[in-house]
Amino acid sequence: MSPKISVIIPVFNGQKTILNTIKNVLSQTFTDFELIIVNDKSTDRTLDILTKVASHDKRIRIIDKQKNEKPFIGRIDGVRIAKAEWVTFVDADDYFYPNALQKLYEQTAKQPHVILGSYCKVYDRLGWSRSKPINVVPKECLEGEFIFVKSKFRLAFWGCHSIFVSSCAKLYHMSLFNDIKAINFKAIHSFDDTLLNLLLFEMVNKIVFIKDPIIDYRYGGGTSKFNKLVLPDLDVLYQYRSSLLDKCSDSEKENYSNLEYINTIYSYFLNGLIIERWSSDEFNIELENKKVLPVFKHCIEISTKYNLTSATFFLNLRNKELCYKHISTEANRLRFKRLIYRSIGAFLAKL
To answer: Which pTM value belongs to this model?
Structure first.
């Protein structure tokens, strides 16, 4: 008999966290599930850990990939062999609440396409800190108190507002994946959750929400705006979004997507100056390397439409010295602001 839920975990070099995440899933109060772990050609001890733990629980299935293709394709690979009617995803360093699967599965009787739970942000780079439960449904998606506006929710995956775009804390009906399982996707690391939901939610007609927290979602991983892969990945997202916009001609989606493209590219160069301390020469080299990306060229074309500091960056590109002066001035301002915040924090810590 097939399990009721397929839990899928993509992992790359997760030896520090993957065992605890697996134990967390296996300790769920709801037990009728399979656990599919996709090892994305890890170079550390991840595979040894997976092999050992799988030998003790028949619900665990391992996909050992011979090529590193990033989390997005890893999730799709897991879906391709999944046996259950319902699918959920967990990152290799996140944790379900003990009754998470039970709470999610109870809602399947309402026959939705997707069930969404709330979540808690967890920060552990500078010490363990958990936020209060964050509801996945902002006010702009509700009319009155209970009526859900699906069209507004979908806009989250176009960068329009702050709905939780992660693939975690969600239970998807397998039918949503029928049209995308056979697609030969490009590897993508950043924006992988956004892209997955962007494709899936075009087919969603009924959604159920759970106010209770489902998962502790860990922040501070490798998908920051200064990740070296951010701009190539943004270019992949841009290409998929462009093809969808060609089908729907939605000016609101296009406008918000443009703002996200501009701000992400700007943040990449801004953080390069703040974090990596690029010199003007290093800045110019990085600029020349990234200007060939279609999404970058797109931002140059559209920047005149937006009265933003980030848009000004693209307007100054014809003059490299002016461009560097503009962004380095902003970087120095933010660097000074960060220094002040750290000084205040150090002072308060002594009280």
So the answer is: 0.83
